[in-house]
């Protein structure tokens, strides 16, 4: 049964430990729906050769099926983002964060442990720059590659080393659970000895002025989804730079005039 989320407790634990688990965020029906959608999409082999060599990666889930927008625009998730990233934001600013990316990583066989690392690219950053949500579509247990974390490591101004593995704690999740994490917290995964599938969807938000890994507004023409203005802000529509000062002087505003040309070009050359 789903529990009501105490957002303030989530934020308090994020600030202290760097991560927090929220059980039963998705219903079992929703879990099966996402698994079904992912199974119908073509995956790629993850490029990282140091770990998860057999991992299958499905990037840009927002382009694969409109159901993923139920997570991207989920009010509980956005409320956590708003309160978490409010720290350090200009008090009169609105739309202080944006959607960064969403992908799925699928492990089907045995895999080596994943090294401790951070996802924010900046260690010990405060106020935080980004927030991650790990959404579990399979149970994780000893032997099935559970995620491990080092509590409080989001406050340490260095990258993790091998010696830090002994400080890590494995967090076991049931399908439907999510883990919310400060993107600077040290995390990795245990060795996977089982042949059972382990699928995790990763959903990420950053402060509005940080570059998205993919130019999201330029790729949405083919998506059968009507976005509100608030949703467009979240997707980054108003955060792209103008060509020059003759178009606009501010850092934010409508998409540059050339964006339609790019969208049309992408649509014509889509495979």
Short description:
The chain is of the alpha+beta class.
Helices and strands, with pairings:
Layout: H1 7-17, E1 19-22, H2 28-39, E2 44-45, E3 56-58, H3 69-72, H4 75-85, E4 97-107, E5 114-117, E6 130-136, E7 147-149, E8 169-171, E9 178-182, E10 187-189, E11 198-207, H5 229-235, H6 259-268
Antiparallel strand pairs: 1-9, 2-3, 3-4, 4-11, 5-10, 6-9, 6-11, 7-8, 7-10
Helix pairs in contact: 1-4
Q: Give the total of beta strands.
A: 11
Helix content range of the residues, please? 10-25%
In the CATH hierarchy, the third-tier topology of the largest domain is known as Jelly Rolls
How much beta, percentage-wise? 15-25%
Calculate Rg over CA atoms.
19 Å
**Count of helical regions:** 6
Elements, N to C (H/E): HEHEEHHEEEEEEEEHH
Report the major sheet.
7 strands, antiparallel
User: What's the architecture of the largest domain, going by CATH?
Assistant: Sandwich
CATH superfamily heading of the largest domain: q2cbj1_9rhob like domain
How many separate domains?
2
The CATH first-level class of the largest domain comes to Mainly Beta
Q: Order of strands in the sheet with the most strands?
A: 1-9-6-11-4-3-2
Structural class of the helices, strands and pairings? alpha+beta
Q: Report mean pLDDT, rounded to a whole number.
A: 90
Spatial separation of the terminal alpha carbons = 43 Å
Poorly predicted parts: none
| Shape category | globular
